[in-house]
Amino acid sequence: MGLFFWKDNKKIDAFARAMADDLYSHVQPDIARDFLNGQAFKSKKKQQKVKQRFTGIINQMKQFRDANELGVYGKARMQMTFNKRLQELGYSVEDTNQLVEMILTRLG
Hints:
This protein is an all-alpha fold and about 110 residues long. It contains five helices and no strands. It has helices at about 10-25, 30-35, 45-65, 70-90, 95-105.
């Protein structure tokens, strides 16, 4: 990564915003809230699709993190930008926090 890690900020921010936009295009805030709160969906197929989308986002974040050798600062920046963009898109602070907890526990 080198000494001048802040040069990657635009790349990190663009990736995090793209991930948030992708999530929003497939999982609307109200559906995400229901999933994160453990509410049952009318169809198992829909619940499985939401779970797959969250898993896909997490896997893409892992790949980006590993490919770009993000340090502590880069990981934090990616997560903060992702959170901020989700809130701009209409996800509540509580839902965003639950999603962040889920992502952080799986990213390790």
